[in-house]
Each structure stands twice: as structure tokens, then as C-alpha cells.
């Protein structure tokens, strides 16, 4: 496992441990206070735990080596599990929060006063305290994920640009989760205070529905980003660089096409179609393509497969065509 993979795994494990602790505390507070928004937040944290488990499965499965059944490896499997996170778990959490909020709006119930060490204690104070601590912990997790995401990119970018440019769903899914968590906690905190201040318990249900709608929106955005990677997103930077490198090779008469396709967080497949002068020999073509493949790997370590289709500038040259079938570089 590479250094960046270790970083992604560390972020997911930290996020899982934080959400497990937060989910337990929120669940206890929801039972004690009867708060709908706190219940929605507890479900949200449990959903996040499921998200991280799915991501861990994806990271584990994508690290398996190539086999006869999967000759190109399974590096893109992490995208499958990340898509399941968006479609199933976020939708589940969002739908449940909306349902609970609707029920609480129809039948609003004031937050209860509990006995603590023999003294009446307003449960909303407990809720506000837990929400504040949870927001702090989720914020720390968000900063850690952002730091790791920036470390994997060549130049500093805004958070939105970092997410859109990232090819590692284990990082940007955690960022989506933590961002949604901070927003959801803020909503729950504000509406908890408002519902107590104005004695309007219905606002607690409104907060739960707002959290649910926000989660559904995050699910749609995240699903769109992962779907693009799952289909096979192109990498224009690598494709352009490879095209320019091919043009500089002596004996090349033209470049028909260069395609760079993302197959995983650290796996890019490059396919090139090259026209060569008829005067160049098959051996020269083979050596030139092997050298080209090594140069590409030196500049872009994420390229795990490079294959060049060799064509003659005029009539097809059988030796050169034969060389193209062996001009593949795979790690």
C-alpha cells in the first residue's frame, strides 16, 4: 500500500472512531430528551459509521492484485463501494430524518426535564453541550481529511476544487460526510435553542426535516462525483503530456489519439495510437515505446498501464505492427 493509500486509510479509521463515539452519545441524549433533531443526528452518525465501513471494504478489495478473472486488477472497486455509500446509506439517513421530523411536526413533544444526581436538569442543556462537542470533533475530522486531500494534489486549491479534482473517494466522501455533519449539527443546535426559547417544540421537527433534506442533497452531489469516476473519467493533464512527449520522439510522423482513463485512486490507464515513418525498424519502435513508457511512469507514477498502437505512416509495416503488441507497460 502506497503512502497516499495509508493516508486515506488513516482518515477513514479516524472518522469511523469519531462517529462511533458521537453516535453513542447522541443516541443516549435523544432517548433522555426525546428530541427529534437529536435523534436525526444520532441516525446521521450511525449512517456515517456505515459509510466508513463501506469505504474500508472498498479500500481492501481494490488493493487485491490482478488475477485471471480481473486481469487489470480491481483498483476501481473502491468507486463501487463509494457509490453505494451515496445511493444507499446517505439516502437512508436523509429519508429517516425527514420521516422523524414530519412525525414530530404532527405531534410536537417538549423536551423533558430529567433528574441528575437527584436534581431536576433541563435535557436541552445536555443536547446543546453534546451538539457543540460533536461539531468540534467533526470539524477536526474535516480539517484532517482536507489536509490529506491537499497533500495528494500538486498545487493548493480551494475545498471545492480539491473535492472536484480528487480521484480518491475515501477522502472526499469523508469530507462530504464531515461537512454535512457540521451543517447538520449547526442546524440542530440553533433550532434546539429556538424551540426552548420560544417554547415551540415543533421547531425541533423542522430541524430534523432540514437535516434530512440536506443529507439527500449531499447524496446527490456525492453520487454524481463518484459516478463520473466509476464510468471512467479522463485525465486531460496526463493525456496532453503524453501526446507532447510522443511528438518529440524521432521517427514519429503523427499522433492519432491519446486516452488517459482513471481506473482507481492511484491507477490510470493510457492508450496511444502512433504513426511512424516507414524507414524506422520494428526494433527501434519497440525501444522507443519502452523508453516512452518509462518516462511516463517517472513523471506520473499513477500510470499502471501504458499501451501503444503502432501504425505505419504509409503502408502497414508487419514488423512494426508486431512490435505494438508487446509495447505495453504494466505495474
User: In terms of per-residue confidence, which ranges show pLDDT below 50 for 5 or more consecutive residues?
Assistant: 314-331
- What is the approximate shape? elongated
- What is the CA-CA span between the terminal residues? 13 Å
State the secondary-structure class: alpha+beta
What characterizes the major β-sheet?
A: 4 strands, mixed
What is the overall number of helices?
Answer: 10
Please estimate the helix content: 55-70%
Strand order in the sheet with the most strands:
3-4-5-6
Mean pLDDT: 80
Strand content: 5-15%
Order of helices and strands: HHHEEHHHHHEEHEHE
Tally of strands: 6
Query: What is the CA-based Rg, rounded?
Result: 26 Å
Would you write up a description of this structure?
- The chain is α+β, with helices and mostly antiparallel strands and 331 residues long.
- The protein has ten helices and six strands, in the order H-H-H-E-E-H-H-H-H-H-E-E-H-E-H-E.
- It has helices at residues 3-33, 36-62, 77-106, 123-151, 159-165, 169-197, 202-231, 236-247, 282-299, 318-326; strands at 113-116, 119-122, 252-264, 267-276, 303-312, 328-330.
- The strands form two sheets. Strands 3-4-5-6 form a four-stranded mixed β-sheet. It has a two-stranded antiparallel ribbon with strand order 1-2.
- The longest helix is centred in the N-terminal third of the chain and has 31 residues, at 3-33.
- The radius of gyration is 26 Å and the shape is elongated.
- The two termini are 13 Å apart.
- The model is unreliable at 314-331 (pLDDT under 50).
